[in-house]
Amino acid sequence: MLKKLLLSALLAPILSHGVLAQNQTQSEIAMKIESLLSKMTLEEKIGQLNQYTARWEMTGPAPTGSSEQELLEEIKNGKVGSMLNVTGAEATMKAQKLAVENTRLGIPLIFGYDVIHGYKTMFPIPLATASSWDPSAAELSAHVAAVEAAASGIQWTFAPMVDISRDARWGRVMEGAGEDPYLGTKMATAQVRGFQGNNLSADNTIAACAKHFAAYGFVEAGRDYNTVDISEYTLQNVVLPPFKAAVDAGVATLMNSFNVIGGIPSTANPHLLRDILKGEWGFDGFVVSDWNSIGEIKNHGVAPDLKEAARLAIIAGSDMDMEGYAYLPFLKQLVEEGLVDEALIDDAARRVLRVKFELGLFDDPYKYSKLDEKGLILNEENLKAAREVAKKSIVLLKNENNLLPLKKAGQKIAVIGDLADDKDSPIGSWRAQAITGSAVSLLEGIENAVEDQSSVVFERGPVFISNEPQFTQHLQYNETDPSGIEEAVELAKEMDVVVLALGENCFQTGEGRSQTDITLKGYQQELLEAVCEVNKNVVVVLMNGRPLVINWMAEHVPAIVEAWHLGSEAGNAIADVLFGDYNPAGKLTVSFPRSVGQCPIYYNHFSTGRAADTGTVFWSHYTDESNDPLFPFGYGLSYTTFDYSDLNLSAGEITADQKLKVSVVVKNTGVFDGEEVVQLYVQDLYGSIARPVKELKGFEKIFLKAGESKTVEFELGAADLAFFGVDKTWKAEPGNFNLWVGTNSQSGLKGAFKLK
Ligand code: NOJ
After folding, report:
1. Which residue among 296, 372, 512, 735 is least enclosed by CB atoms within 10 Å?
2. What CATH number did the domain enclosing 143 receive?
3. Mean pLDDT over residues 140-154, rounded?
4. How far apart are CA 483 and CA 492, in angstroms?
5. pLDDT for the residue 1
6. Count: domains in the chain
7. Residue 605 in domain
8. Same domain as 135, residue 37
9. Do 684 and 721 belong together in one domain?
């Protein structure tokens, strides 16, 4: 172990993620770290591994450790390396002064915060942004968030969440890129780039944190914090690729996940942290625990007490203790008793210090607290960017008889639903410093877009939530008072078209918000059916953070716009789509189930031994529901139509060192200009282990004018076909492959080739 650590210390300058503080080379930083480490006492090193939350804002269970006063004293005594949830130039400056001016070595704190999809200017929730299939949109969202967070004294975000999830019950589906590892890697890379840029010490970048390592999205039955029990196959082929991509993109930190995998808490899993992450992948940043996930090793029943939990976590490779109160009290004792090698503490401290050096904190610990906080946050430019990303995130699920786009004049529009004038829900869960109620509502967006505002009339319908939504409390849905339905119906009768907002309150999703029922809550279904009875031109605008079961709606409503929680500019972005100023091009990155009983549901499943309908009961199916999703992965419509033709493969066979060129002609056959996400899927017909029925291996978003055609080309090589197989290595196995190029995971032109 010691030898391995020493080696990683020596290799650090070479393996480094290459995101450097200005004018500092990695070897200069390495020298500075070693010189500083040599001056540090064991207590001071352990202090660097300790992270506390500010007492005034908490994103987890209330701290049981020190009081606020004690905490301030501990900072002054060098016992704290990082704080989370301290925000604002003034507050961070104050806390930083405590560390820099009072501690023996003046080592600055690093301030971390959950800047997930915006800081004050809110961008769409990450699941929505992923639906753009546009990595540059994800990068822009992360970049603006970094600019604003940095201007508010933050140097480190706990994002991106790169957890793959296949289960809509899990509340945190909203925070990731969906169910597919290939798309997940593209989004992870883009987000890391957006947060960190090329230079971590620049004023407009912050350190990113890929989380939650690992497999947190696979909690059993979609219940948050629950057990995970997945195979090494799934871990390697599905869960880890986005983390690997984040590491390759230079992510500065990773966060542990709360769950166990095969009974081993991730926070105490040396195979994950030492063998894979810090060994195989050469990661030289640091790993922060999740909120008390070191303490929770005890709750998992894997350590009898906090001291043993601390021992397991540091040995496994968890470098910083977030709110676990485990490292500070016990690590020194563990070293003195010979139960923990001091080299492990050195290694962890070295990693933390490296990120602080790279951020430029040793050059000027206050620099993030001296930026133009007012000018950089929530300005016009940022809001414009938020609107751009928001409109790209919208997915058109249905548009019968071209009901959409609507005309801006000459028709009377009823806007109905409690969510329609909600200025808060569009901000979404994980909202950092967003101002409550500051989003452009759907109603406002529509009013801004039409020529004559008097053509738009709003009717709330039944109240949706009957308590004040809050971050830490459960919502209560109104399930007792249907009043408002009648008024909504009366209005719908008189109007040419109805825009009906339905879905989820923002606090229905996010951490700690798993659900067993993913249909519409409250009186929304009743309202929908009543309105549809009197008006045939109903456009449902869905606002939600997870796939919903909307079978009735999909069958009876002519137009459905999936608008997620789109952030500050939500209403304007939705109106851009409703009125055709922007032709929607988003595609789902999660399958929409027909029933919660289908969860987990995902397109890249195995075939099973009994996939074909035998006409008896003895095949893999449900007796009361189809196997298919309501809307598949990759699905999304446009106001125009695209025709795919001329699929061409450069060869019928390739060797491991050759590339297969795949081309297809895509034509815009409608009357609107528009974008299309051209998707390439592959099926490895058989392997040493079962292979998915389809896997996304490429995509390209193209713009075509009405009538225009374009040839889209992809390249496939052995590396793209490789998987972690029975011999526990990544390689492509020779054999036959199918491929499809098309508009979603369930359609496409089909070809075949052989890998020799
Ligand atoms: C717990 C969450 O799981 C994690 O994602 C978040 O970053 C921390 N709390 C800090 O708020």
Report:
1. 372
2. 3.20.20.300
3. 98
4. 15
5. 42
6. 3
7. no
8. yes
9. yes
Which region among 71-75, 458-462, 694-698, 742-746 has the lowest average model confidence (pLDDT)? 71-75
3-state helix, strand, coil in the chain (%, to 5): 35, 20, 45
296 lines ligand 1 (CB under 6 A): no
pLDDT tens-digit series, residues 326-339: 999 999 999 999 99
Task: Report how far ligand 1's centroid is from the alpha carbon of 564 (Å).
Answer: 22
Rounded CA separation 273/743 (Å): 38
Structure confidence at residue 5 (pLDDT): 43
Distance from residue 291's CA to the centre of ligand 1 (Å): 6
Our mutation pick for probing the ligand 1 site, out of 161, 290, 320, counting the most ligand atoms within 8 A of Cβ, is: 290
Whether 624 is in a domain gets the answer no
- Catalytic status, residue 363: no
The 3-state secondary structure of 69-132 reads HHHHHHHHCCCCCEEECCCCHHHHHHHHHHHHHHCCCCCCCEEEECCCCECCCECCCHHHHHCC
Query: Is the CB of 291 inside a 6 Å radius of any atom of ligand 1?
Result: yes
Backbone angles phi, psi at 87, to 5 degrees: -130, 155
734, 756 in Cβ contact below 8 A?
yes
Residue 463 belongs to domain with CATH number = 3.40.50.1700
- Among 167, 284, 290, 576, the active-site one is 290
* Ligand 1 mean position, distance from CA 712 (Å): 41
- Looking at 545, 565, 598, the residue that finishes a domain is 598
Cβ–ligand 1 contact at 422 (below 6 Å)? no
What is the overall mean pLDDT for the chain?
95
Range of the domain at 120: 2-374
> With contact defined as beta carbons under 8 Å apart, do 248 and 215 qualify?
no
Q: 200 and 315 share a domain?
A: yes
| Judgement on whether residues 592 and 680 belong to the same structural domain of the protein | no
Q: Which atom of ligand 1 is nearest to the CA of 175?
A: 5
- Rounded distance between C-alpha atoms, residue 576 and residue 580, angstroms: 6
Q: Both 676 and 592 in a single domain?
A: no
Same domain, 581 and 677: no
**Residue 613 is assigned to a structural domain of this protein:** no
88 lines ligand 1 (CB under 6 A): no
Residue in 632, 651, 648 with CA at minimum distance from that of residue 693: 632
Ligand 1 midpoint to CA 290 (Å): 6
* 130 alpha carbon – ligand 1 mean position (Å): 21
Range 165-197 burial, b when 16+ CB lie within 10 A, else e:
bbbbbbbbbbbbbbbbbbbbbbbbbbbbbbbbb
Q: Do 354 and 406 share a structural domain?
A: no
pLDDT reading at 59 higher than 90: no
User: Which residue in this structure is represented by tokens 């409550």?
Assistant: 436
- Looking at ligand 1, which residue's alpha carbon is closest to its atom 4? 290
How do 559-562 and 538-543 pair as beta strands?
A: parallel
Same domain as 241, residue 158:
yes
Find out whether the beta carbon of 603 lies less than 6 Å from any atom of ligand 1. Answer: no
Question: Residue 403 domain-assigned?
Answer: yes
Domain end (from 312, 342, 374): 374
Residue 695: CATH number of its domain? 2.60.40.10
Q: Is the CB of 158 under 6 A from ligand 1?
A: yes
Question: Is 60 a pocket residue for ligand 1 (Cβ < 6 Å)?
Answer: yes
